[in-house]
Amino acid sequence: MRIATWNLNTWINRKNGIDNSTLWSWADDNLAADLVIFTEAATPPPPAVRAQGWSVVHRPGGFPNRSNWGTLIAGRNMRIEHLTHVGKKKYELDTNFPGSLTAADVWVNDEYFACVVGLYLPYRKDAKKEFIGHPTSDLLTLKKDFQQILEHCDGSLIVAGDLNDMHYRTVPKPLGALGLVDPFKNHDHVTFRQDWDHEGLFLMDYIYMTPRLADRITAFSGGMDDFPDAFSVSDHAPLLIEMNV
Fold first, then answer.
1. 236 with 178: CB under 8 angstroms?
2. pLDDT single digits (tens) 102-143
3. What is the pLDDT of residues 37-75, one digit of tens each?
4. Is 208:181 a contact under the CB 8 Å cutoff?
5. What pTM was computed for the model?
6. What does DSSP say about strands 35-42 and 2-7: parallel, antiparallel, or unpaired?
């Protein structure tokens, strides 16, 4: 199985005339992934996507007040179910910063594979466009969501997406406390290039997972060095892992 995460930069691409189908086609041609976590992705996906065997889940309307873009979790020829509540008490997910966390259960060949969480943590602003939050503190606030999800999935968890923080050279504490590991920890890569300054190169996107899943990884690639052409259609480069299932 090939699993990828990529920020599609939808709001800028709309302004620049790059449509959603172009981004999905680029991902198909360059990643050939079976399971994708797309952040800043247009919702819903192009109609042709479902006809090609993809199952897609996302928050209805995408990220609130962001013109129908958000986080998509999609799998080709596999079963994916959107998770909005977990546990016996039906704990509701994604209430702290609606749109930041998208979760789904994934089955492969009718066998449960994992719970997959797509994260997009923006710098939040109020109605006056003044900053009122930071991605790092928001991640801490989401701690209970992650704990509930981990219990739900019985230790098979993948968390991926755009955390909007360039300092995570180790797994951030809220996710490290869950026992998640970083398969890219020894891989120096850049996933974000500022569109106003091409010298502004940062690590912003991540894939973390529980050790039982990480032990199945057979190969990985990602960032500007492995996918330089990604910057022709986005300001982010993807991450990709291959694993046995």
1. no
2. 999 999 999 999 999 999 998 888 888 888 888 999 999 999
3. 999 999 989 888 888 889 999 998 888 877 789 999 999
4. yes
5. 0.94
6. parallel
